[in-house]
Structures are given as C-alpha cells and as structure tokens.
Amino acid sequence: MSTNDPWPTEIRREDEGGSLVVVFDDGLRFRLSAEQLRVRSPSAEVRGHSEAERKTLGGKRNVRILTVSPVGNYAVRLDFDDGHSTGIYTWSGLYALGASAEEDFALYLQELAAKGLDRDRPGEA
C-alpha cells in the first residue's frame, strides 16, 4: 500500500449489520452489503489458494456483520453471524470492492445461476 492510496476516514456497520459504510479521504463513500462482503471474503476459506479453488457461496442474502475489528493500521476483520471471521479486509481491498460493487454483485448473481445456487439456499460450488 503506497502513501497515495485512499485511506478510510470512517468505517461503520449500518442496518443492524446488514451493510458496512466506508468513507475514504478522497471523498468516495461506499455502502457494501454484508452479503457481498461475505461472499467476496478475502479469506482462504472462500478464495482458496488459486482461482480454481475459489468458492461461490449461496444462501448468504440475510447474513449480518456482528463486529468490525481493526487489524493493525491497514485492515479490518469482519465477524459474520454465520460464524465466518477469517477474512482480513485491507483498505485497498475495500476500496476496490466498493468501486466495482455493482458489477461485482452482478457477476456473483451470474455465478450463482451458473452453478445452480441461489441467495437464499445454503450451498457452495
């Protein structure tokens, strides 16, 4: 992370943990759904160790963020009500996800459909 990378000035849960709002020092503000953060977790559990190992998760429409915990001065760890707590979300990762949130979520919906999964029924592929 370079000194020119956007830096968060505010991070807070909203909607009873249904979303995370992140405001950056360049003026951009993102509201990321707990569902999108959960299914795009940077954890090895979700991402695997290669693109071939990446999982598509279904049944996460109603997942909630329970806690937001700082990790050093570069990231946060999100604890979700489904027990997932191993993803470390860096500032640059949150910024990238926020900047592409709409396109990324559409891609996620396509992945679900292609794998016979849906947002309401638990499953993974």
From TrEMBL:
Q: Which Pfam families match?
A: GBBH-like_N
Keyword set, alphabetical order: Iron, Metal-binding
Q: Which residues form the Gamma-butyrobetaine hydroxylase-like N-terminal domain?
A: 12-95
Identify this protein by name: Gamma-butyrobetaine hydroxylase-like N-terminal domain-containing protein
Gene Ontology molecular function terms on file? metal ion binding
Q: Which residues form a coiled coil?
A: none
